[in-house]
Fold this sequence. Notes:
The chain is an alpha+beta fold. 15% of the residues lie in helices and 30% in strands.
Amino acid sequence: MALKKWTFTVDPQDAELRLDQLIAKRTELSRRAAREALKLGGVQVDRKRVKVAGKLVKPGLEVRVAFDPDLPPVPTTAIPIVFEDEWILAVDKPAGLATQGTWATDRHDLLALLKTQRPDLKLFLHHRLDQGTSGLLVLAKDAKANPGLASAFAGRDLEKLYLVRVSAPLEACTAEAPIGRLRGADPGRFGCEGDLMDPKSARTDFRPATAEEAEGLVPGHYLVARIHTGRTHQIRVHLAHLGRPVLGDSLYGGAPSDRLWLHAWRLGLKHPITGEALRLEAPPARFRT
């Protein structure tokens, strides 16, 4: 993706310009492209998304502009529902879909699609999946469920299992190595070694998938990963650290593939309101032959 980004401060002499005019003056974008960036949600003023082309911006405020000319049409895919009751909603996120808005758009993501699919709902997000990762994601429908879900995903009172395909076998093991952002890395990525920014403890258990668990899947080497912490890119980073990067994970040295072979498969947690034990599952349909 040819994503371009600009950040600038509004000068006093530009205070009378419409926002689309201001963007065209301070970036490489034409007014037409500026209006497209605004429509997609790629413009922030004072860290808040703005979509009004005619808005006047006060001097001294920060403007951020992100524009990706290669963005596909706004998706209309129906998001599969795995579980729903009065308080929570569990969905099976498709691969290739961001969980929430990116720099350049707030219309090409899971939350935007769910808002279109279920305009009656106000949803609250407590965890995320990488754009290339498919599978289970749980949201609160009622604010009363927020404390319970926030506590569950911030702590270790839940079981999160992922299905992963790698290029070579890996015996059962535990990766317990801190994860931090690699300073100066472009594109941005995380690691267990090197010049890490704010490294935090992380633990992931890995084991080979059983024959029953891998039945019907594209032939290959499959692992079941259980994460005990919720660090960004945790499974991807720990597998790269072990010398077994996820197949298709070009960011962390995985062998080339047409997809990232990582799926949030099963989730066990206590219901945030009733306390009932929930066992949720999203079958890995895109891994099947």
